[in-house]
Amino acid sequence: MALLSDLVNLNLTDSTPKIIAEYIWIGGSGMDLRSKARTLSGPVDDPKKLPKWNYDGSSTGQAPGEDSEVILYPQAIFKDPFRRGDHILVICDAYTPAGEPIPTNKRCAAAKIFSNPEVEKEVPWYGIEQEYTLLQKDINWPLGWPQGGFPGPQGPYYCGIGADKAFGRDIVDAHYKACLYAGINISGINGEVMPGQWEFQVGPSVGISAGDELWVARYILERITEIAGVVVSFDPKPIPGDWNGAGAHTNYSTKSMREEGGYEVIKKAIEKLGLRHREHIAAYGEGNERRLTGRHETADINTFLWGVANRGASIRVGRDTEKEGKGYFEDRRPASNMDPYVVTSMIAETTLLWNKS
Q1: Where is the GS beta-grasp domain (predicted)?
Q2: Which of 52, 138, 302, 344 has the most CB atoms within 10 Å of its CB?
Q3: pTM metric for this prediction
Q4: What is the per-residue burial (b if ≥16 Cβ within 10 Å, else e) of 108-144?
């Protein structure tokens, strides 16, 4: 008699050419990921060859009950690390039956910015540092923390090792390998300053692909924590008090910044970002005011400042960039629950398209 695990891991290649495509989209809160699967007649490697699909938007907070149909447009394909074989994960965005993007579809507007010739010729690169917190399922308290109590103060946990410092490493490493399998350009992981908090980095990725890859990486993390019976939180300040918050620092460069004389281009871009500080903060994630207090490696939410190697700044420029006169900078303001389509496209729009006059 087959065990459940045998059936979950059943290899279909010997019995059918058909594959399973898991369609993934963003729900009504702007952070809740949804997905459902369908059977396809054979392998597909181009999202344009995938059929559109629909779902009940009234059950995701994205449409009224009397007109609930929302249409999924496939946009990017990744290998499925759960089913493996030729099975795929499909990132979709959502539209009305008339073809209009629904309000929570932030990808559509981002794609327009990234397809602008002025943006395309600058080949914008992004590296996103996604922080998150692992929580015990039934009590919503960080993994490794005593129930109703607190661990020792911050200090030994950042990049720490050992059973008393690193909590949930099996989940983190499983996620790392699953992302590599899927084809996500994940570039690293590390334990963070608060115990139970971790980070993974996606990039360098070009344009709209940065958002696609981060959303799929989040999806894979949610699925792995589901299997492990642990909750993942993207709250920017999950524990009040003298504990670090969680961000999504966004590293950015353009072709002009990466070439000789790029440091001057970087400084002009940072000046533009400062002039639009309020607009960016408003779009950089909910609850960010609880994180951007001027403490715990952040600048105050109402203050814009930049500096070289300054982790208390809004924008940090690395020592190597200053020394070489070219490179990239890090926007440290985005919260861990930010929408990468919004943040990446807004940075491109402000630095490449916006005219301060």
Answers
A1: 19-99
A2: 344
A3: 0.96
A4: bebbebbeeeebeebebbbbbbbbbbbbbeeeebbbb
